[in-house]
Amino acid sequence: MFPGVISLFSSLALLSSANIVAASRCGVDKLPSLDVFGASVISIDAVQVNNSPLTNPPTTFCNVSIVYTHPGQNDRINVWVWLPNAWNGRFQGIGGGGWTTGLVPANIIPAVAQGYAAVTTDGGHASTASTASWGLLSPGNVNLYLLQDFASVALNDMTILGKQVTEAYYGKSITKSYWNGCSTGGRQGLMLAQRYPGAYDGILAAAPAINWAEFIPTEFWPQRLMQKMNYFPTQCEFNAITAAAVAACDELDGLKDGVIGLIGQCNFDPQTVIGQPYSCADANGTITTQAATIVQSIWEGAHDSEGKFQWYGLTPQAPLNGLANTTCSNGTCSGVPFSISSDWHSVFLQRNDSDPYSYTDAEWDAAFRLSRNKYTSIIGTSDPDLTGFKKSKGKMITWHGMADQLIAFNGTVDYYQRVLELDPSAREYYRFFSAPGVEHCGGGNGASPTDPLAQLVAWVEAGEAPETIAANRTMVGERWEQELCAWPLSSIYKGGDVRMASSFVCE
């Protein structure tokens, strides 16, 4: 979820090592008294960063650090506003990943280098993959205040604070404001559109963790399958089955390029490769019935003990080392659960250190129901009613890799379909693009978006609604260009130079 997130503290250490000097405009005395309803500012600091080595090119900016709390909730939240000397007049909110609320350097650094005033927050905690440090107030008692901060409250707070600081610092109004996030950052974008629809003019919500209360607990489904079958395959065996699926369905879109473009038409059956040999540097053997059965169930998605659908599975090209990860020693393999899912079960559902491997069928069913019933209202962003965002004249783009190994691509399809069912004209302000062969927030064999934020800006400021999203990938050392199609269209190769986007058509 989650993109590689550089440590909050290591990033700040890099920042502090930059050439920091006093500047006449970058000082606490130049900033306004900050006002956020329900919050109280504890401290505010400002330092000038000259020619920061973090940015390319080196950028000079004012780093404003704010600490605040919600009285009575015993939280302590940090907000950072980076204000470049060469401001483009725009404002950008930076999303997080995993349990990290924000300060993802991969996003905030280019934002400032491009001239955006940028804001981000830690949401009151510093963890990325675990909530052990804050999830429980005491055994059995969830820290609901910090969960709410992470889920929604801190996002609106940081936006209000960031805008106040930005406009006071420059003495001008912000021209347009944008949200930029993937994974958790994508969920945050949808949260803002649904609960704070006037906060941003444009929202880029990629690979969004939309149905948190459903998909986070069911991310443990692959581990549960392996535990129940008492068989934990090597990753080599899993990879062999995935490769067979790609080989079988690769050319459905007209081009053999290691990418399943028409995932819905891929009817590959893992049972057909049982007995075929596989070999890697650390493992070899033949594909087993158990592994084929596990993979088929992962693709079909999680179900309860009565066979009722719970949530979508991964697509056949998605790597299985995210949710069905295993480790092997001396010929014996065991599971390596995705930490955010196991964390959700032990901390937020069972509220102790229990092991979700130990669930009975009845306990698995109960945990899923509890997750939906208890947490959808706090962290869920599956509401298809975007009326407020539409009335605010906002624009939103979502793109999602079809080979996402952590967040089921079809969960985003499900949400967008429901948006269109409720408002058939939703494409006027919200568009969703699929990225064949692309993994979570990037990577994989497919073409990843080149600069979707720029296309969002063009839509917001020039009315240029994107029919496709420009994308590219590196193949055999060369840059191949392709356009990502607006769902439900698919990119089909029609002949010609495979490196050129003009050789593909959305249909």
* Residue fraction in strands: 15-25%
Beta strand count: 23
- Rounded to an integer in angstroms, the radius of gyration calculated over CA atoms is 23 Å
Average pLDDT across residues? 93
Strand numbers in spatial order across the main sheet: 1-2-3-4-6-5-9-10-17-18
Low-confidence regions: 1-23
Q: What overall form do the CA principal axes indicate?
A: globular
The computed structural class is alpha+beta
**In whole angstroms, how far apart are the ends?**
30 Å
By DSSP (H or I, 4+ residues per run), the number of helices equals 13
**Major sheet:** 10 strands, mixed
Walk me through the structure:
- The chain is of the alpha+beta class.
- It contains 13 helices and 23 strands.
- It has a ten-stranded mixed beta sheet with strand order 1-2-3-4-6-5-9-10-17-18, with helices on both faces. A three-stranded antiparallel beta sheet has the order 19-20-21, with no helix packed on it. A two-stranded antiparallel ribbon has the order 7-8.
- Helix 3 packs across helix 4.
- The longest helix is centred in the N-terminal third of the chain and has 27 residues, at 144-170.
- The protein is globular.
- The two termini are 30 Å apart.
- The model is unreliable at 1-23 (pLDDT under 50).
